[in-house]
Specification:
The complex is a heterodimer. Helix content of chain A is about 85%, strand content about 0%. Chain A has one domain. By secondary structure, chain A is an all-alpha fold. In chain B, about 85% of the residues lie in helices and about 0% in strands. Chain B has 14 helices and no strands. The chains are: A mainly alpha, B mainly alpha.
């Protein structure tokens, strides 16, 4: 499989799992009467997924071309992505309809899902795959 | 008028803290991600057929390595909007300390997480069939490397959200010292934890049958490498929660700031040094599976000795915190106490790293030549004792500054 296609598949896998998990938990929280918690979790997860997608999309530019160009692209990419991650936090601080703690948890949802899926895989496999 | 000035101080402290949090916090993750990308380039040039898998591994590794920087971003944004509650100089010190704790504390974890990510890419080029096992090992290693940043975040949250404003005036220096202690103290352990994590990925690609045992040794090595960060966290807690009411504000405040610097700075070298020994231990296990016991023993001894400078720092911190001082407004005495902390802290950095380098080679050679274990152990201990002497000189000067000035 081509590198770009591999990146797309990886993004699709983790973003869809993260969104699915966040929406499922959010629905439970909303039905239990904790609407700001549920909304905060989904908000954080959306931006966490966006960050991961942007990270993947800029990868080919970050590891190809001249060193100078790669450094510039990496720097700009980090600046844009971190500014993007700050947006839901500012929104949660300013708006009472989003719970801040849940938004912070949502921001780490991609990382949580990467670790969780690998943890499940590692605990269920019977043998080393070699 | 006075309350407006105090509020302005609180806002300024929060803004500068936010800047430090994100500014310092971006350093480590950027270096770690860069290391992963550099190794991925190397791996792709070695095995272009699997470039897709290597790039995927790199992306996942970078996503985890970025966690420490996201912690720093969260703290930074919270500081930007901190209202400060009861505005006082203690609140200002707490907010500023929170920024320092998180920003500095994210550096090591960002760098350390990059090592397993990069080495996993290299390992994948060597052993493409081990993709899933390498990913698991890499993620465990990266996650463990994030622990010191999590310690820093816990301290930052406490400094931000616990109301210390009713405390004695000493709290200004104590909270600043607490933030500095945890921030500096997490750097070495974060980087150090990355060495065994990276070597576990290298070892797995060389010796797949040792997979689970390499992971075990990686966790043992990383756990020991994180001891200096735990020392720093203990001192941070002490500075936050011990009441100094009834002691003179001057020079006790300077002593508290010095206490934070002593353990925090000294922990940098010990964390890195312990990590070097742990990395060599994991490499030794992969190289010589029959010598795992011998390698583990010399690794743990090497790590224990590498921790000594951070124990010196802890000792000086305890003396600075618990020694009573007569009240004096003389600035020289306060300067001497801060310098005592700085002296042991800075003096321990090189010694900790040096001890780690000695241990690294000894452990590595036991993996290659187990028959010479006793000789290597003796040589290691002698070498470490000599490189330890510089930290002892620093401690002697610190004691002179505390007791003679």
């Amino acid at each position: 499989m081509e590198p770009h296609e591999q990146i797309r598949q990886t993004q699709k896998k983790y973003c869809s799992i993260a969104m699915l998990a966040a929406i499922s938990v959010a629905l439970i929280l909303i039905f239990a009467g904790y609407k700001p918690l549920g909304k905060g979790l989904v908000l954080g997860t959306v931006f966490s997924s966006l960050n991961f997608i942007l990270m993947g999309e800029t990868l080919p530019r970050r590891i190809s071309g001249s060193r100078r160009r790669a450094s510039v692209v990496s720097g700009v990419s980090i600046f844009i992505r971190y500014a993007l991650l700050a947006a839901p936090l500012i929104l949660a601080i300013k708006s009472p309809s989003f719970n801040l703690a849940a938004t912070v948890v949502g921001l780490f949802m991609i990382q949580i899902m990467i670790l969780a899926t690998q943890g499940i895989y590692a605990s269920t496999r019977k043998n080393l795959d070699y | 008028m006075m309350s407006i000035e105090i509020e302005a101080w609180v806002r300024m402290a929060a803004f500068v803290g936010a800047g430090f949090s994100m500014g310092f916090g971006a350093i480590g993750a950027a270096i770690g991600e860069g290391f992963a990308a550099a190794k991925a380039n190397n791996a792709i040039s070695q095995n272009p057929t699997y470039s897709g898998d290597i790039v995927k591994m790199m992306l996942v590794g970078q996503a985890i390595a970025e966690t420490a920087a996201i912690f720093a971003l969260v703290i930074g944004v919270l500081l930007l909007f901190a209202t400060g509650g009861n505005a006082s100089m203690i609140t200002a010190a707490g907010l500023f300390g929170a920024g320092l704790s998180m920003g500095l504390g994210a550096i090591g974890s960002g760098v350390g997480s990059g090592f397993p990510a990069g080495e996993a890419c290299d390992g994948l080029a060597r052993q493409p069939a081990l993709s899933r096992t390498l990913t698991t090992t890499m993620l465990i290693g990266s996650a463990v490397s994030q622990t010191p940043a999590i310690f820093s975040m816990v301290i930052a949250f406490m400094l931000m959200f616990i109301n210390f404003s009713g405390g004695s005036p000493h709290m200004v220096a104590a909270l600043l010292g607490s933030g500095l202690c945890m921030g500096f103290g997490a750097i070495g352990s974060g980087i150090g934890s990355g060495f065994p994590a990276g070597q576990a990925c290298v070892g797995l690609a060389r010796q797949p049958a040792m997979g689970s045992r390499l992971t075990t040794n990686m966790l043992i090595g990383a756990a020991v490498s994180q001891t200096p960060a735990i020392f720093a966290m203990v001192v941070s807690f002490m500075l936050m929660f011990i009441s100094f009411a009834g002691t003179p504000v001057h020079p006790t405040s300077a002593a508290l700031l010095g206490a934070g610097l002593a353990t925090g700075l000294a922990a940098i070298g010990s964390g890195v040094g312990s990590g070097l020994a742990a990395g060599a231990g994991v490499e030794g296990w992969a190289r010589q599976p029959m010598a795992t016991g011998n390698v583990l023993v010399i690794m743990l001894v090497g790590q224990a000795v590498s921790q000594t400078p951070s124990i010196f720092g802890l000792l000086i911190s305890f003396i600075l915190i618990f020694k009573g001082y007569p009240s004096t407004e003389v600035f020289i005495v306060s300067t001497a106490l801060v310098s005592a902390g700085l002296c042991t802290g800075l003096g321990g950095i090189g010694s900790g790293v040096g001890n780690g380098q000695v241990a690294q080679t000894a452990v590595s050679w036991v993996g290659r030549n187990v028959e010479q274990e006793a000789l290597l152990m003796r040589t290691m201990l002698v070498g470490q004792a000599v490189s330890q002497s510089t930290a002892i000189y620093a401690m002697v000067i610190s004691l002179a500054l505390i007791f003679l000035v």
